[in-house]
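Note to self: keep these together.
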Amino acid sequence: MADISPFSLPGKFYRGNIHTHSTLSDGLLKPVEVVNAYKAAGYDFLMLSEHFIKIFDWPIADTTPYRREDFTTLIGVELHAPETSVGELWHIIAAGLPLDFAPCGENETGPELARRAARAGAFIGIAHPAWSQLTIEDGNSIDVAHAVEIYNHGCAVETDRGDGFYMLDQMLNSGKRLTAFATDDAHFSNFSLDAFGGWVNVKSENLDPDALLDALKKGHYYSSQGPQIHSISIEELYLNIECSPVDTIAVAGGTSRTARAHGRSITEASIDLSQLRLGFTLADPSPWLRVTIIDNEGKKAWSNPIWLDEIK
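Structure:
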């Protein structure tokens, strides 16, 4: 039996949000108020990802004064530059930037800006693909991306465009080994309904910002709206999942086929992966899988993609 990362790794899971705004850009709360709100909600870390654009004077929030033994922050921004296929600015999450990261150049494109941020050491995430109406070609142009934002709570509650799996799955099918992160994108508007709805659980041996950033880059996390994934392992043709009580455990890959287990408050399942090879599809078995669990309130948690050729 092979245990799947990050559940088999040492350390513990730390809950965090890497897409949030304050009055430094277009959020409604001051930075310290945003930090205190997330601390009170039980988060372990936060990144203020202000809109890195001229109209806000290129803000990078220095949140180091808010770091404590039991709570920390990452430094980063939401990058903007021309232009996507629909003629709008790019929105790209860059976590782990230096405070002196230079503003976007006059002729710098989104992909070029993302590359510069990656060279500076950042985790690069393609933000809210559905809200931005990104095409697969758009996604592929961000060739240094670590991940796709597969759930954006603010976009979900305000416009019903919070999903990013359509992009991630197709990029995975093209061979790109990306991970999947969930966020709030909270501005604390609309009665704060855009806050505390999606986050990452990062596996790390400690709460050091550099350790968290390294874990994000390596994909040592899963994303959630509330449910918890405790372990995933694979044994021959069976994928074994242990989790908090849910009603659905589903396994999807790169075709239309899925394998699943249903019940009331189930906490484990052993799913026969041969189900993914049945039905109407003529496609070869998918080289990757991902797990979704759904509780009785419809809240979900998502694993990162599991590449079968990486299982030892």
